[in-house]
Design brief:
The protein is α/β, with parallel strands linked by helices. The protein is built from twelve helices and 21 strands. It folds into two domains: 214 residues, FAD/NAD(P)-binding domain (3-Layer(bba) Sandwich), CATH 3.50.50; 88 residues, D-Amino Acid Oxidase, Chain A, domain 2 (2-Layer Sandwich), CATH 3.30.9.10. The radius of gyration is 21 Å and the shape is globular. The chain starts with a strand and ends in a 13-residue tail after the last helix. The structure holds 8-demethyl-8-dimethylamino-flavin-adenine-dinucleotide and P-hydroxybenzoic acid.
């Protein structure tokens, strides 16, 4: 059985769902295919910090009502080192904010918005394949929840299926994939405890980074830098709390509150950029094309920024037949992606422990000290943390 649509979107993460909504608002139809179940997608604990730029976009496309009510509004973040806590106030320089609102909530709001449009969002879509991307009639096939093979003929395919999806495997073999692996991972927890500071905190300890974020007044989200080959089972709750407490000790705040851990996960740190994000009628977005380490909280924001650029380009073709913005999609999005890579790498290299060398720690401490003392350094960090402008508007209004 063959269905037709303008855009086949693979993956119902932030990139795919946001793109689907922006296309809908421009009168472009799409089918979103998601491998996982709806409950799985709604409950995946991941990112939490949204740039002002992302929140402005979500507001503009009408999916930020709950976010505006429930998100925690932050001016910047805290840095802790040498047992001393410093606040970096980026809001002061720009009037802009960062918003703490879990990725699962963003995804839930986008799923609800999609359902309200009545356009197709298909969960449990197995064995997705993509063919004929060198034509204007690419074909996507999948097996539905009842085991039936389905076929969709589209005009474009949006690969929003993350770093383990099928879309990126369709890129030509000469596509350059630039990778930097880091020798550590983040062990993350969600716990019923009061966050240690009112805004998120990176604590740079000679023995490694700890990150203290939150999802609510009594719900903390915290991370520990651990070696890449860490076995999660070796980390009992007690060991996690001990290490979080040790790395975040200070002379100016009470010790960390401990409590029930309700989620535990391990995420390796990687930096990846596919420096060609399109081939024929296939376009890659978000984690399917690039990964940043979580330091700096850029991944979800970049996924939304790519969706915005592709929405504009598809809108332009739809309204005028002009393909120029589609042709230049990669060139349009890559500069902002590299700014995020650069920012994430900068934070990663200053905040993590890389080895035993005491010279290394002193260099990092010197950099951290500049960040806490220099308004111009803070302004520069804040420009990227709160979100550089998106490369294009989301809608073609010509
Ligand atoms: P996603 O969210 O991975 O969504 C891809 C979707 O595609 C589905 N899929 C398939 N569907 C059909 N067929 C297939 N063959 C498929 N293969 C996969 C998947 O099930 C999934 O639903 O990618 P997207 O949309 O590009 O979004 C990217 C973000 O999820 C990611 O960059 C962020 O989570 C990264 N990140 C953070 N980003 C931020 O902006 N702020 C943060 O505070 C932040 N913190 C984090 C993070 C990532 C972390 N981990 C888990 C690496 C903290 C952590 C610990
Ligand atoms: C989070 O709240 O999950 C979070 C905070 C800061 C980061 C990454 C993730 O750098």
């Amino acid at each position: 059985m063959t269905e037709r649509c303008q855009v086949a979107i693979i993956g119902a993460g932030p990139a795919g769902l946001a793109l689907g909504h922006m296309l809908h608002l421009q009168g472009i139809d799409s089918v979103i295919l998601e491998r996982q179940s709806e409950s799985h997608v709604r409950s995946r604990v991941r990112a939490g910090v949204l740039e002002q730029t992302t929140v402005d976009l979500l507001t503009d496309i009408g999916v930020a009502e709950r976010l505006r009510r429930e998100a925690l509004v932050h001016n910047g973040f805290y840095l802790r080192f040498d047992r001393t806590t410093h606040h970096l106030d980026f809001h002061r320089h720009s009037g802009r904010h960062a918003y703490v609102y879990g990725q699962a909530e963003v995804v839930a709001d986008l799923i609800d918005a999609r359902k309200a449009t009545g356009r197709p969002l298909i969960f449990d879509a197995d064995d997705v394949t993509i063919a004929d991307i060198d034509t204007d009639r690419p074909v996507v096939e999948y097996t539905d929840v009842d085991g039936r093979r389905r076929r969709i003929e589209a005009e474009a395919v949006a690969g929003c299926d993350g770093s383990h999806g099928v879309s990126r495997t369709m890129m030509p073999s000469d596509t350059r994939i630039l990778v930097r692996s880091h020798p550590f991972a983040w062990l993350g927890i969600l716990a019923h405890t009061r966050p240690v500071t009112e805004e998120g905190m990176y604590s740079a300890h000679p023995d490694g980074l700890s990150v203290h974020s939150m999802r609510g007044p009594r719900l903390s989200r915290q991370y520990l830098q651990v070696p890449a080959e860490t076995d999660l089972d070796a980390w009992t709750d007690e060991r996690i709390w001990r290490e979080l407490r040790r790395r975040s000790q200070s002379d100016d705040h009470p010790p960390l509150e401990t409590g029930e851990i309700i989620e535990k996960s391990l995420a390796p740190l990687r930096s990846v950029v596919t420096d060609r994000m399109q081939t024929g009628s296939l376009y890659l977005l978000g984690d399917a094309a690039h990964i940043v380490p979580p330091t700096g909280a850029k991944g979800l924001n970049l996924a939304i920024s790519d969706a915005c650029a592709l929405s504009y380009a598809l809108g332009r073709r739809h309204r005028t037949g002009d393909r120029s913005a589609l042709t230049s999609y990669t060139d349009t999005v890559l500069p902002r992606i590299w700014q995020a890579q650069s920012f994430s790498w900068r934070l990663t290299s200053v905040l993590h422990r890389f080895g035993e060398d005491p010279y290394d720690w002193e260099l990092r401490r010197a950099r951290l000290t500049r960040w806490t003392q220099s308004p111009s350094e803070q302004q520069a960090l804040g420009e990227v943390y709160l979100g550089l402008p998106f490369p294009t508007p989301w809608r073609f209004d010509g």
